[in-house]
């Protein structure tokens, strides 16, 4: 913050005394000739100034005028030479910049930037002080401040790239404290404050680097660039020039940058390399390197290439009065003022520290291209490329600040004891004391402590500005931060404008007083009220963004009440002052301090009845108000002391009150409510009646003083009641809910529409309880607009469809089909309101004394004269009643055509008192009846009463329509002496729908709902039957039988049909019902209960439930009836009570039911009308034969009993099992008697030892056994030894998948993660003895004894032996030496996995669980082998057979022993042998000589050279004996025995039960403790290749006579060969590093091999080894094998995710590497899968955000994003879907939308899925694929009615025959799946009609 601008004189003095020297670049070393004073140029080097001498004089004169008056008086004007000398000396004064090399006289002062010498084009270094929405504030050198517009903060070329940034762009690109290089655009006057100037800057690099070219850029130079775009491997940079670009690798960015770079952001970096071909500069942004990098002394560098912030090596040239002069880069000079020296606290002797020619580092602070002046800084913080820290706060007071230096006539340098580190501060002479003319050197001494207050801070200079004036420590406000809303302040008026006044506090802080706050009343001339210079008292209204607003209203200034300055301060009962902001009909909006607002409703304004709000209050008026509530904003009352009422006297929601009208407004009526507490009431126009037309009519007759007797309290707002006069609500008060807990599901209640939106309708009840009816539930016809059916305020009946107690939401249905009226309240409301309107209307006509004549009531005969004849009837006038008119319709004229003026006698059928109209009839049946009644008045009254008594409520009658009125019908009842009745033609929810057309004379069926009484306005009210039951009958047809249809009513019904599960009956007039099979007998279950009934039989039944619509039929609804004796004989129930079924069951309870459905897996039972049960196939029997005939064993209608396993109260369903069980079995689940559980994985009916049925689910490979299904979602495992009773060679051969089996439960265990493990056995229930007891299974290791004979199956084979399964709990091991009495040529082949073996127990270790078995018949065989080996000695000649031929020799079995030896290829013949396979075959006979016997390792070396037998056999027997082997099988076997390890050997197939399966099974076997092979040398696998062996063989022949010399070498090779022998004899997967090395050498491009190698290293706990294997794989796999490389990368990523430290960083680095080699999309998807598998949701979210930006046109990526959002953030799905539609190609939009819709369906949001499909079908109505997918999703949901409606739409379109065939086929299959034959025939018929139509 710059120091106070008001002290311009202080600045002028500083400028005058610190006149900058024109120090620029150093002069060349060669001295220039001396010049005279007149000839000395103003700018010594680089040419003359652009300004003339006169212009310079004007500038200096302007500077002089700003000096202090005393200072000006001391200056005398000089003339002649003295004047010239003064002008020359002023060249060195402050106010001009010196910028070239100096020759001759040096400048006195260092360059200093001021507002006077700032000019466009200057380059400055600054630090960002503020980041605003539209601009940046930059702190510049010398305490100046500049502004950067948003358009100048970013390159225009990058503007499009940063549009995606959310929020403020500037705040995303810049931060406070950031160092920036900027260019001055202009300096102009501040429009808001005169005398101030604004500096406009630009941060655009195109201005800063305009002179740069690629040739000017050198390595090691520090450059600033904008991030142009973000790529996978780094950032593309923009330097502001088109000639070259830059690149910043991401690796260096991650290592050095603390924050993540975004597009448009500034970044500094060091040039690492330059690609001049591609014109790319590569940077490194390591902060340490950037901060230490020094600009090199480049040859020919110009001033234009220098940028502020660059660091240079400099040399001190001289010291100046206020700084030092430096030379740098050979040719340039610059100055450093003493506020930018190395020492932040330079004392008076600071010049001693800076000796001439001393080398220092400095950074460029500013550059003036016009004067070529350069300013430098040596500030230690800036040298480190960091802004000086701000350790102090403006306004803080420091009591003990130390004086460091006293500058005469300038000020004091202080050391502020700020936290962390001292801060330098400077106090100018004008801020030292209040008085003038103080001598600093006399009053202050260096080292003394003084008291100082911080006035401001120069961010770039790191210098605080202070004040020591005594007045500065007074007053509560010093800075904007000290201002608090509501505080009282004293301020001086400094300016008065038309809209406000500017006032200034004592500290200089300014505020605004708006015009409306200058006084309590409106003032026209503010300058008379406020005079400049006047000091007044104000109160602060608010302070926002340093804009302070105050008020001078006396009431507010002098108020002693609490201040309300935040919403948190508002508490109920708080009394405070505010001022009115807005007035309307509802009330007043009141403003408080700091922008807080509240609302006072009209009822709380304290107004008199009929008083207008604007007449009492006006805007800006100060009011005292009380806070009444803070729940929904701040609610206020102007009534400060409300009347306190007891709890009994308080009005509650749902109360019925009365009131007197006070004021009638266009939309609302205000009343005084007749209750205690002087309550006010409000009725909105739409609440005056249930009928919209009557509401307007009622409002038109209401006048102040009218009383409304019955009003319902809908809501309470403070002292105001929201009322309703709707009869429907008042009549239904007991049922109206005020809270969600009072709502019952599926109940029908009355309410009113409070709001309409496009997607649905909001219905409100009492208080704020509101429900929502979606569009699909609000309309029976979906093609109708909601606004055409409903209106705000409409009375409606609604059905509660769904209750969500957690969210407090109600879902309603407004369909007429489910909400139709069951009484005549709608019509009753109409007539009562009509009476009220007429009464109010007549009360206003008291002067005429008009009252309705008694002779003009319904049924009376009147005489009148025809005054006018019209087309549709005649108008009648009455002589006695001139204000009443009559009307006779053409139907009521009975064909007569009376003339005008004639007199007629007619009967009144209807009366409209408010319209003064009566409807008459001339029909004789009415006239004769009425005249006869009139002549016998006494008798007629009795007769009328008798007739009415004969009419019963709820009786169904046939009526004839006499008159069709607006909204209702006038009917007569011919069967009841033509009694007149009235029936509504519409209903609550159908007020705006086009009504059914009725005509006079039409016969209808109706139900009597109310007899004539005062509550019905003396009318007989009826309710029409539904439209399908409105019939026309002849007058001669007899009346149908009477019927009553209340729930609980007894009816006489006739059986019309007998179905397996129900009786169909008819009763009454057109009513149908059904008797469920469980409603026949009181006993639990009776076999075939319908057998005693026949069609046509009459029964007595009772209605027990509302109508239900039968499935798969379009017929009307059926009543639920019961013929149980106990129900029929019971008392009749009331109409509102429905016989409910209690869901009172418990787990384990025995129940019975009737079968109503059988499928392949389940039997479905009906336990009662609502409770269903199901039985799973495997719970129905144990025997496989019974399970195979499952569907045949149960028939529909049969009885079935079982035990409850689980219950679901919501679905009213049970799951049964056939056998009893303990509810606490196994102790796994505790008591389950009364809990409600899911039936998916119930196991408490499975008990150890139990027997049940099962089904083979899967046969596992090898000896894994099999999985058997025992429940719907339960599977048990059968161990390999538990498959058969006896030990057989292949126990799995008798089983196949899907086979039913009888199994025994051995054990049931529950794991920690919730999984259930079940062990089963398929053996007999007790071990059978077959031959001997040894065939039984060993269950415990303690049962084993030494030498016991046992059976087992081979589990796995290893080089050291094998493991066998003795039972499901016990395994045993067999050493290789104990596999057979003889030699085992191929253990893998002779002992395959699963082979049955029989052996003897050698050892048992019960503690460790280890068992060892031998398969040898003779237990002493192992010793015989050792004895045989001892019989051999070196030199013996033996005979034997060739066992195997290998490239390096022959393996020979020695006769009569169990021994075998190796004859190396070099020992076979004295001559070279090319190919051993050509000369030897396995099985051939040979003679050999024993060369070596190793008893420790059991190895024998043999030799077959002829020379070995010369002495023993002679030359004739020198050749070996070889028997030819021609058997092809032996040859094939020999070739198969060759040791070849290839890729195919390693990639085992699971189906074959191969070595990989053996490895998996081996993982569960403990390792062998006894070492079968004592030596496993790693080097034995580095076998010599064939060529080396041949060479060695040939060299042996050549050195035949030197055999002894080679003996030692032979022995060393023999060691290698013997060690490799054992490995090459077996065929197994690699288990050592060397074996893996062989495999990867043979298959170097197989990712499978490399990944297995990595797994092996991890199994050895060698993580680094696994990493090295991965690195080798990536280098080894051929570059063309993209997928193989990708597999390794993915495995490597999984490795780092699990073992990286930290894993997140390790994965990120590896991922960046992989991007350089792999397909980007595939790799991103693999990484996403990794994150999802490991549930790293945050990382997955971030990755998906990147992917949708990077792969905008990939449908798969967008779908993955949508899928993730549906699980994690469903609210953001719509926004993301819109983004995807804008990015995807057009041809993928339909596929994308359909997939999104499917995801919506699968995630439980079918409504959204439907809306997507509907939108697509509107655009593509004939796309078969869309219809197919849409239908599939709906079929999965199972809403049959909706599915059929969808099929009807699809098959009604005009599409090609091929598409229509597909749709009809799909429709037919759907109906077949439901099994409704009528619907199937319907679809077939419709298809035929389509074919016929298409053919025509």
Structure explained in plain terms:
A hairpin with a 5-residue loop joins strand 27 (587-591) and strand 28. Among the domains are: 8-92, no CATH class; 118-197, OB fold (Dihydrolipoamide Acetyltransferase, E2P); 212-301, OB fold (Dihydrolipoamide Acetyltransferase, E2P) (Beta Barrel), CATH 2.40.50; 402-458, no CATH class; 478-552, OB fold (Dihydrolipoamide Acetyltransferase, E2P), CATH 2.40.50; 559-642, Beta Barrel (OB fold (Dihydrolipoamide Acetyltransferase, E2P)), CATH 2.40.50; 653-729, Nucleic acid-binding proteins (OB fold (Dihydrolipoamide Acetyltransferase, E2P)); 736-781 and 788-819, Nucleic acid-binding proteins (OB fold (Dihydrolipoamide Acetyltransferase, E2P), Beta Barrel), CATH 2.40.50.140. The N terminus is likely disordered. Strands 1-2-3-5-4 form a 5-stranded mixed barrel. The chain contains 49 helices and 75 strands. The protein is α+β, with helices and mostly antiparallel strands and 1896 residues long.
Short overview:
This protein has 1896 residues and is α+β, with helices and mostly antiparallel strands.
Identify the overall geometry. flat
Q: Give the strand content.
A: 25-35%
CATH homology superfamily of the domain at 1421-1564 and 1586-1618 = Nucleic acid-binding proteins
Q: Could you say what the CATH architecture of the domain at 1421-1564 and 1586-1618 is?
A: Beta Barrel
Helix-residue proportion: 10-25%
CATH fold group of the domain at 1421-1564 and 1586-1618: OB fold (Dihydrolipoamide Acetyltransferase, E2P)
CATH class of the domain at 1421-1564 and 1586-1618: Mainly Beta
Mean pLDDT: 79
Give the neighbour order of strands across the main sheet: 1-2-3-5-4
Largest sheet: 5 strands, mixed, barrel
Helical/strand content category = alpha+beta
Low-confidence stretches: 1-92, 253-258, 1027-1043, 1132-1140, 1225-1240, 1327-1334, 1419-1427, 1513-1597, 1618-1627
Compute the number of strand runs: 75
Over all CA atoms, what is the radius of gyration?
53 Å
The DSSP helix count reads 49
The end-to-end span amounts to 91 Å
Region (Disordered): 1-90
Function: Essential for the generation of mature 18S rRNA, specifically necessary for cleavages at sites A0, 1 and 2 of the 47S precursor. Directly interacts with U3 snoRNA.
Subcellular location: Nucleus, Nucleolus
Biased composition (Basic residues): 72-87
């Amino acid at each position: 913050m710059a120091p106070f601008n008001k002290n311009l004189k202080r600045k002028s003095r500083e400028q005058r005394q610190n006149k900058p020297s024109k120090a620029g670049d150093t002069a060349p070393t060669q001295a220039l000739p001396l010049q005279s004073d007149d000839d000395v140029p103003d700018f010594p080097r680089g040419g003359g100034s652009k300004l003339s001498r006169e212009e310079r004089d004007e500038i200096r004169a302007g500077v002089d005028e700003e000096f202090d008056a005393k200072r000006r008086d001391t200056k005398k004007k000089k003339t002649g030479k003295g004047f010239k000398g003064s002008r020359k000396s002023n060249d060195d004064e402050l106010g001009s910049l010196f910028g070239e090399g100096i020759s001759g006289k040096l400048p006195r002062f260092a360059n200093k930037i001021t507002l006077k010498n700032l000019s466009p084009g200057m380059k400055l270094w600054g630090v960002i002080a503020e980041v605003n929405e539209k601009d940046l504030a930059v702190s510049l050198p010398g305490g100046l401040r500049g502004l950067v517009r948003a358009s100048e903060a970013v390159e225009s070329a990058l503007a499009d790239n940063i549009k995606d940034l959310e929020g403020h762009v500037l705040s995303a690109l810049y931060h406070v404290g950031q160092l920036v290089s900027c260019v001055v655009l202009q300096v102009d006057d501040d429009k808001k404050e005169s005398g101030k100037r604004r500096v406009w800057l630009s941060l655009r690099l195109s201005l800063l680097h305009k002179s740069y070219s690629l040739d000017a850029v050198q390595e090691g130079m520090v450059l600033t660039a904008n991030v142009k775009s973000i790529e996978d491997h780094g950032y593309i940079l923009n330097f502001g020039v088109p000639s070259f670009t830059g690149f910043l690798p991401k690796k260096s960015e991650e290592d050095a940058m603390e924050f993540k770079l975004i597009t448009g952001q500034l970044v500094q970096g060091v040039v690492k390399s330059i690609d001049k071909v591609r014109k790319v500069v590569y940077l490194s942004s390591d902060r340490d390197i950037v901060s230490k990098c020094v600009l090199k002394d480049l040859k020919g560098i110009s001033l234009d290439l220098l940028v502020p912030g660059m660091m240079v090596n400099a040399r001190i040239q001289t010291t100046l009065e206020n700084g030092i002069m430096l030379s740098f880069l050979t040719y340039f000079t610059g100055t450093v003022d003493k506020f930018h020296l190395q020492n932040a606290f330079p004392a008076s002797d600071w010049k001693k520290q800076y000796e001439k020619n001393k080398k220092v580092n400095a950074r460029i602070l500013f550059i003036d291209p016009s004067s070529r002046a350069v300013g430098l800084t040596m500030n230690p913080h800036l040298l480190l490329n960091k802004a000086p820290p701000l350790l102090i706060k403006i306004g803080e007071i420091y009591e003990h600040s130390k004086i460091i230096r006293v500058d005469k006539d300038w000020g004091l340098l202080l050391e502020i004891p700020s936290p962390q580190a001292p801060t330098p501060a400077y106090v100018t002479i004008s801020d030292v004391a209040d008085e003038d003319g103080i001598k600093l050197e006399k009053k202050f001494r260096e080292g003394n402590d003084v008291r100082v207050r911080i006035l401001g801070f120069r961010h770039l200079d790191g210098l605080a500005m202070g004040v020591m004036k005594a007045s500065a420590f007074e007053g509560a406000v010093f800075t904007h931060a000290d201002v608090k809303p509501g505080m009282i302040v004293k301020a001086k008026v400094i300016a008065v404008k038309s809209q406000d006044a500017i006032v200034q506090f004592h500290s200089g802080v300014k505020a605004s007083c708006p015009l409306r706050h200058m006084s309590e009343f409106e003032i026209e001339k503010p300058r008379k009220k406020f005079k400049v210079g006047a000091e007044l008292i104000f109160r602060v209204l608010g302070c926002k963004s340093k804009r302070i607003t105050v008020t001078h209203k006396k009431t507010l200034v002098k108020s002693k009440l609490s201040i309300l300055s935040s919403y948190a301060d508002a508490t109920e009962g708080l009394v405070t002052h505010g001022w009115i902001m807005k007035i309307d009909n509802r009330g007043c909006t009141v403003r408080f301090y700091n922008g807080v607002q509240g609302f006072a409703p009209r009822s709380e304004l304290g107004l008199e009845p009929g008083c207008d709000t604007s007449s009492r209050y006006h805007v800006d008026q100060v009011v005292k108000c009380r806070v009444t509530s803070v729940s929904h904003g701040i609610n206020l009352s102007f009534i400060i002391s409300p009347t306190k009422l007891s709890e009994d006297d308080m009005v509650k929601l749902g109360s019925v009150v009365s009131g007197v009208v006070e004021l009638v407004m266009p939309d609302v009526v205000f009343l005084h409510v007749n209750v205690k507490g002087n309550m006010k009431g409000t009725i909105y126009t739409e609440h005056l009646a249930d009928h919209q037309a009557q509401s307007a009519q009622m409002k038109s007759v209401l006048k102040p003083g009218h009383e409304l007797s019955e009003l319902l309290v809908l809501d309470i707002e403070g002292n105001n009641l929201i009322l309703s006069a709707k009869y429907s609500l008042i009549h239904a008060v007991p049922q109206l809910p005020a809270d969600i807990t009072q709502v019952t599901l599926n109940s029908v209640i009355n309410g009113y529409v409070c709001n309409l939106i496009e997607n649905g309708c909001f219905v409100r009840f009492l208080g704020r309880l509101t429900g929502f009816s979606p569009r699909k539930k609000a309309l029976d016809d979906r093609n109708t607009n909601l606004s055409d059916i409903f209106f705000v305020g409409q009375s409606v009946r609604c059905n509660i469809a769904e209750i969500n107690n957690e969210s407090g939401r109600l879902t309603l249905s407004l369909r007429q089909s489910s909400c139709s009226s069951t009484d005549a309240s709608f019509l009753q409301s109409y007539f009562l309101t009509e009476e009220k309107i007429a009464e109010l209307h007549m009360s206003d006509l008291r002067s005429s004394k008009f009252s309705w004549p008694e002779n003009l009531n319904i049924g009376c005969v009147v005489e009148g004269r025809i005054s006018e004849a019209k087309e549709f009837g005649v108008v009648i006038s009455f002589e006695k009643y001139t204000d009443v008119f009559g009307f006779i319709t053409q139907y009521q004229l009975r064909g007569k055509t009376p003339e005008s003026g004639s007199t007629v006698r007619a009967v009144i059928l209807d009366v409209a008192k408010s319209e003064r109209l009566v409807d008459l009839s001339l029909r004789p049946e009415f006239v004769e009846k009425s005249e006869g009644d009139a002549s016998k008045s006494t008798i007629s009254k009795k007769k009328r009463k008798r007739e009415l008594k004969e009419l019963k409520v709820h009786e169904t009658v046939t009526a004839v329509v006499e008159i069709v009125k607006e909204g209702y019908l006038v009917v007569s009842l011919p069967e009841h002496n033509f009694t007149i009745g009235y029936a509504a033609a519409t209903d609550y929810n159908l007020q705006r729908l086009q009504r059914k057309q009725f005509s006079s004379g039409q016969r209808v069926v109706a139900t009597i709902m109310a007899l004539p009484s005062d509550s019905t306005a003396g009318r007989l009210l009826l309710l029409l039957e539904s439209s399908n039951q409105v019939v026309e009958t002849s007058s001669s047809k007899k009346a149908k039988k009477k019927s009553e249809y209340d729930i609980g009513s007894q009816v006489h019904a006739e059986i019309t049909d007998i179905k397996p599960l129900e009786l169909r009956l008819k009763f009454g007039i057109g009513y149908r019902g059904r008797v469920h099979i469980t409603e026949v007998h009181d006993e639990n279950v009776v076999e075939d209960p319908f057998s005693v009934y026949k069609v046509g039989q009459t029964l007595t039944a009772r209605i027990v439930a509302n109508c239900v619509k039968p499935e798969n039929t379009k017929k009307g609804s059926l009543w639920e009836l019961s013929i149980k004796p106990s129900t029929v004989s019971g008392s009749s129930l009331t109409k509102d009570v429905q016989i409910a079924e209690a869901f009172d069951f418990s787990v384990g309870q025995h129940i019975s039911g009737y079968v109503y459905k059988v499928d392949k897996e389940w039997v479905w039972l009906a336990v009662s009308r609502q409770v269903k049960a199901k039985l799973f196939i495997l719970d129905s029997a144990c025997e496989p034969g019974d399970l195979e005939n499952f569907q045949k064993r149960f028939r529909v209608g049969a009885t079935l009993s079982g035990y409850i396993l689980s219950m679901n109260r919501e679905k009213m369903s049970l799951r049964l099992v056939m056998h009893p069980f303990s509810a606490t079995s196994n102790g796994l689940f505790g008591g389950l008697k009364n809990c409600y559980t899911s039936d998916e994985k119930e196991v408490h009916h499975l008990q150890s030892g139990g027997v049940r049925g099962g089904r083979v689910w899967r046969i596992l490979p090898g000896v894994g056994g099999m999985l058997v299904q025992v429940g719907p979602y339960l599977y048990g495992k059968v161990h390999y030894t538990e498959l058969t009773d006896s030990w057989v060679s292949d126990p799995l051969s008798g089983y196949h998948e899907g086979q039913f089996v009888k199994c025994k439960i051995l054990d049931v265990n529950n794991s920690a993660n919730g999984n259930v493990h079940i062990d089963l056995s398929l053996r007999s229930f007790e071990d059978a003895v077959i031959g001997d007891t040894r065939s039984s299974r060993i269950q415990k290791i303690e049962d084993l004894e030494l030498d016991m004979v046992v059976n087992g199956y081979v589990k796995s084979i290893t080089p050291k032996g094998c493991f066998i399964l003795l039972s499901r709990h016990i395994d045993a091991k067999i050493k290789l030496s104990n596999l057979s009495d003889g030699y085992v040529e191929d253990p893998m082949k002779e002992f395959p996995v699963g082979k049955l073996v029989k052996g003897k127990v050698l050892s048992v270790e019960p503690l460790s669980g280890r068992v060892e078995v031998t398969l040898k018949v003779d237990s002493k065989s192992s010793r015989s082998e050792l004895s045989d080996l001892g019989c051999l000695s070196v030199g013996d000649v033996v005979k034997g057979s060739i066992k195997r031929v290998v490239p390096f020799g022959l393996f020979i079995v020695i006769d009569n022993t169990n021994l075998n030896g190796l004859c190396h290829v070099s020992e076979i013949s004295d001559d070279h042998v090319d190919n051993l396979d050509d000369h030897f075959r396995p099985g051939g006979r040979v003679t050999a000589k024993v060369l070596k016997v190793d008893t420790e390792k059991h190895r024998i070396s043999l030799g077959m050279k002829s020379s070995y037998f010369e002495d023993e056999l002679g030359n004739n027997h020198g050749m070996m004996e070889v028997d030819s082997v021609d058997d092809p099988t032996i040859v094939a076997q020999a070739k198969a025995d060759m040791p070849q390890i290839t890729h195919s050997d390693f990639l085992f197939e699971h189906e074959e039960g191969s070595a990989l399966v053996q490895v998996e099974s081996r993982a569960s076997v403990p390792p062998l403790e006894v070492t079968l092979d004592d030596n496993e040398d790693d080097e034995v696998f580095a076998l010599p290749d064939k060529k080396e062996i041949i060479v060695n063989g040939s060299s042996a022949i050549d050195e035949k006579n030197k055999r002894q010399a080679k003996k030692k070498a032979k022995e060393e090779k023999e060691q290698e060969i013997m060690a490799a022998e054992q490995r090459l004899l077996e065929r197994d997967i690699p288990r050592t590093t060397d074996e893996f090395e062989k495999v990867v050498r043979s298959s170097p491009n197989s990712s499978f091999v490399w990944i297995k190698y990595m797994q092996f290293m991890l199994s050895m706990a060698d993580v680094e080894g696994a990493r090295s294997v991965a690195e080798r794989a990536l280098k080894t796999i051929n570059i063309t094998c993209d997928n193989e490389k990708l597999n390794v990368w993915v495995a490597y990523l999984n490795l780092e995710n699990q073992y990286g430290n930290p894993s997140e960083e390790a994965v990120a680095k590896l991922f960046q590497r992989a991007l350089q080699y792999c397909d980007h999309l595939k790799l991103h998807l693999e990484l996403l899968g990794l994150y999802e598998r490991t549930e790293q949701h945050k990382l997955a979210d971030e990755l998906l955000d990147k992917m949708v930006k990077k792969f905008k046109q990939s449908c798969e990526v967008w779908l993955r994003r949508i899928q993730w959002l549906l699980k994690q953030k469903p609210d953001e799905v719509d926004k993301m879907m819109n983004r995807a539609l804008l990015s995807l190609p057009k041809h993928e939009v339909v596929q994308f939308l359909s997939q999104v819709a499917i995801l919506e369906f699968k995630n439980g949001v079918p409504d959204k899925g439907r809306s997507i499909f509907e939108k697509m079908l509107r655009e593509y109505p004939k796309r078969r694929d869309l219809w197919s997918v849409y239908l599939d999703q709906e079929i999965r949901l199972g809403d049959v009615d909706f599915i059929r409606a969808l099929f009807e739409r699809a098959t009604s379109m005009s599409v090609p025959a091929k598409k229509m065939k597909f749709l009809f086929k799909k429709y037919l299959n759907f109906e077949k799946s439901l099994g409704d034959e009528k619907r199937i025939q319907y679809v077939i018929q419709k298809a035929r009609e389509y074919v016929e139509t298409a053919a025509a």
